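Extended Data, panel c. Modelled sequence:
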Amino acid sequence: MLKQNLQLKLSQKLSPQQIQLMKLIQLPTQAFEQRLKEEMIENPALEMGKEDEFETSEYDTPEDNYDDYESDRIEAEDINIDEYLSNDETPEYKLHSNNYSSDDEEREIPIVAQVSFHQDLLNQLNTFILSDAEREIAEFLVGSIDDVGYIRRSVQDLVDDMAFTQGIYTDEATVEKILQIVQELEPAGVGARDLQECLLLQLKRKTPTDSVELALDIIENQFDAFTKKHYDKLLQKYGVSQEQLRKAIDEIERLNPKPGGSYAGGSKIAEHIVPDFTIRIVDGELELSLNGRNVPSLHISKDYQEMLQTYKDSKDKSSTQKDAVQFIKQKLDSAKWFIDAIKQRQETLLITMNAIMQYQREYFLEGDETKLKPMILKDIADMIGFDISTVSRVANSKYVETPYGTKLLKDFFSESMKNDQGEDVSTIEIKKILQNVIEEEDKQKPYPDDKLAEILKERGYPIARRTVAKYREQLDIPVARMRKKI
């Protein structure tokens, strides 16, 4: 049975422009610049740089540019494209200058030809006398080394892989022999199968001393006791003084547990942080500014505007030009929206960051992390009347340059806890105090988590032991036993 129903429904849909604006807001400076370059390439009606004074006309006002042409776009069917296309027929060679001197230096930025970690290891193999079969095995082993310098596979697995994937048939004894050659490569420790072997390889290359010999014996025979920092057992085992054991441990601590990570010729590019905001203290007051790279000077192409004006004013029009003019109109509309979106992005970033700056005013004036107030996204959203999602997008991957260093914006947000006075304090403040307590402790007798909880309670922060453990882990601080020193 068929029925007809009338149903009212409220729904909210985001337009493509709104979605694009939200994406622009969450972009950090470098990603925003890349997005800007892409838009400039895609839309020839968008130009960068300040407009000349003589270009100010009715077409330079974004709000009024295109509405007058909407009705003409379809109805006006004829236009001679030659009227607004360039008629410059000057040959390109006539535009070239010929005043270049052969004595002038050709200055170019040199490009560093980097050698990868694995390629460097392969190059080092050339210094060893190996048969063709041995070289194939050695190259396979080098290829099995990961980025930090380890071979994390058993010899039997390596033998099987060489047979199945490379057609190299060998045995475990031969692979062990070639592996010892690979482990002679630089940096020391490369080609190890675990941490213990990596440390042993490095200690064996050191100049033999009493401390090195003791360190070598500890890693080889008492590795478990060393990793658990059972120093009393080591003192009893070797019958040495605390000073002798300390020197041996110092030798071990100077070793590199990740030899591949120290490769100087690595091709990894260090991330360069570009702050999106800058906060300065001027005459005792906070001054906020947006990175100039976030404030590009954009305008509508004058040539494209003149094309539309020529189309509108033309009396002798051709229907074959309608699609071309529609394309021009579309690009102009897109350019106008993009300029408006950039302005809105700038305003949103500044308004949100200014609210954060005022909310954390005490911290930005003094730089003391214990002065950071508890702050969540809703606090800032309520201050400026924005949606929480907008504030979240602004805080995402943004950095602010302060007198105390460049900080990640989202690090200023934290939950609150109550102290013994019933006041709300930031969890950042508690973590900072916890870190200070651990730094000041006696490293021969570091505080366990329950003792740390007691100390914090004495200082006015009644938190549970499990909360102390959680904050300690977030600060990347090991348990008491692992902080012990002799």
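The chain has a mean pLDDT of 80. This feature is highlighted in the accompanying rendering.
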